[in-house]
Amino acid sequence: MLHAYNYAYVRVVPRIEIGEFLNVGVILFCRTKRFLDVRIALPHERLTRMAPYLSPQTIQAHLDLIPQICHGDGPIGQLELAERFRWIVAPHDTIIQCGPAHTGLCDDPLATLERLHAALSL
Predict the structure, then answer these.
(1) How many domains would you assign to the chain?
(2) What's the whole-model pTM score?
């Protein structure tokens, strides 16, 4: 059986005013499977080339909060799964942002998340 899901790419946007970004992960939500998870891999070398003035360790610390929220930690983590997903992907004027949400159909949300994340490495 196929299940509808929503996903968005997680981005580091070093200079919001010019809109240049680096995709660093993907978040996926599937309501019918009660699934919300994220895969993040910050390419430190690419970030340093793009924005040498940023600390990869500081960016990583902020990115590490996203899986915590997905898994139910902290005050935002206490929201329902759909609300958590919407909160994470909502537009923010910060260095960490999500791209627009997209939809799809899958039978295995975890496998789909892994496939979408692997596509970032190509």
Answers:
(1) 1
(2) 0.94
